[in-house]
Structures are given as C-alpha cells and as structure tokens.
Amino acid sequence: MLDHGAGRRAGQHEGGETFSKFWKFLLRKNLPLDILSQMEYAVFGLGDSSYVKFNYPAKKLYKRLSQLGARSLVPRGDADDQHYLGVDGTLDPWLGSLWVAILERHPLPSGLSIIPADTLFPPSFRLRFLREEDRGTVMEGMKEKEIEDGFTVRVMRNERVTAEDHFQDVRHVELEVVEGGNVR
C-alpha cells in the first residue's frame, strides 16, 4: 500500500492541527509494533535550518512509522528554505528517487511511459487581453466559432504578492465574469 499525508508548517517544531491529530494516534501505547507492516511510506519535511528543531515533525514521523513496522520507500527528505534553490533544491532530487522506487514496485502497464518532465501540455484555456477602448470593435469582429464556450471577464484585482526585488513576479488575480459566463 502506498499512502500519503500532508501537514503544514507552523513554527519551530509544530506540525499543524492535522499532523497533531494523526501524531496522537500514532503515539498510542496499545498499537501493535507491526500494525503498519503492510504499509510503504515516504516522508518529505518542509523546514528552515535556521530553526533549532529543523524538520522535527518529519523526523519524528519517519521514525515512528518505522517503529510501527512500515517500510520506507526512500530515505527521508528534508527541505530547507535556506537552500539557495529553496525547497526545490532538495525536493526535485528526492522526488526523482521516489518515482524510481514507486516504479520498481508498481511498473507502468505495457505500452505506457513516463511523460518527460520538460513536456509542455497544450493550454486548457486561452486568454486574450483587450484594451477597454478596443473591446467593442474586437468583439464585433470575432466570429462566433472563435468564442465558442468562451466568456468575457473583467480583471478586478491584479496585485503582485512577491517583493519588487524578487526574481519571480507572482500575482494574486481576481476575475469577474461579465458576459456569457458558464463557468465550469
């Protein structure tokens, strides 16, 4: 069995509410030491090495699952916000080893292969930005088939959420459907 779980970062050494409930269950003294013997697991902790208890919940979880008989697919991964590539500096190689381990245990059916990481998929939607003064003219000139299943939206909010000097421009965008909106 392959199982997964997620917790959130919540400070120096807390795992968050979801993790806490799960952790309390795992710490029950009446659990047989082989209760998880049919389980395979992988743990990847999100942390910051500037904290004293760096990735403490992930370390505790990894050890406790092993104590209860579960088998680790790969060594525990410890992300560090201080890594020069951020979390990705350790996540990407860890995920690579995890996929190798999973595929060894659960090979793909004949005729299927892994999609290469650099594959770009076609978009599931298309955005066309219009200036307000061009809106009427452009909309009148569009053929009906060009806007099939389409609708017009108004940008209500477009705020940068990353610092101006950050290398990525991440934005919070809110759109309002103003015309023909059958939103799925």
Automatic annotation (TrEMBL):
GO terms of molecular function: flavin adenine dinucleotide binding; FMN binding; oxidoreductase activity
- Gene3D superfamilies with a match to the protein in the record: 3.40.50.360
Superkingdom of origin: Eukaryota
The UniProt record lists the keyword Ubl conjugation: no
Q: Which InterPro entries match?
A: Flavdoxin-like, Flavodoxin/NO_synth, Flavoprotein-like_sf
Return the protein name: Flavo protein-like protein
Task: Give residue ranges for domain Flavodoxin-like.
Answer: 1-99
Fetch the PROSITE patterns from UniProt. Answer: FLAVODOXIN_LIKE (PS50902)
Q: Name one Pfam family in it.
A: Flavodoxin_1
Q: Which PANTHER family match?
A: NADPH-DEPENDENT DIFLAVIN OXIDOREDUCTASE 1, NITRIC OXIDE SYNTHASE-RELATED
Q: Which GO terms describe its cellular component?
A: cytosol
